[in-house]
């Protein structure tokens, strides 16, 4: 297990850069991960990140479709907020494990 510093905090990360311990996540850590991925977070981003963290805490599997049906953001908006591979990027910034549906 590797460690990386985000916002002055050392966090445990896997070889893909995902946090190993979701309890090490803070909004400041999220902002630093986002910045590393050329993204500046807005309130809308944080609403999506909170949704993802809540769902994972409940043991639910995450999919782009489930995010799109969440009422927090539609699929098009999800792609706009987290360009490229939205679920992969959003879960990384949210400090949760990469979903099995992401390659």
UniProtKB/TrEMBL annotation:
The active site is at residue 102. It comes from the Bacteria. The keyword Cytoplasm applies. One of its GO terms (molecular function) is sulfur carrier activity. GO terms for cellular component: cytoplasm. GO terms for biological process: tRNA wobble position uridine thiolation. The keyword Cytoplasm applies. It is found in: Cytoplasm. Keywords: Cytoplasm. Belongs to the DsrC/TusE family. This is tRNA 2-thiouridine synthesizing protein E. It comes from Acetobacteroides hydrogenigenes.
């Amino acid at each position: 297990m590797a460690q990386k510093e985000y916002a002055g905090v050392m966090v445990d990360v896997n070889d893909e850069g995902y946090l190993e311990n979701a309890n090490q996540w803070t909004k400041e850590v999220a902002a630093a991960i986002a910045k590393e991925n050329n993204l500046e977070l807005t309130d809308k981003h944080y609403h999506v990140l909170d949704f993802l963290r809540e769902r994972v805490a409940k043991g639910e599997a995450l999919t782009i479709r489930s995010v799109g049906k969440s009422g927090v953001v539609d699929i098009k908006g999800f792609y706009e907020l987290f360009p490229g591979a939205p679920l992969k990027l959003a879960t990384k910034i949210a400090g949760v494990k990469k979903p099995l549906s992401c390659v």
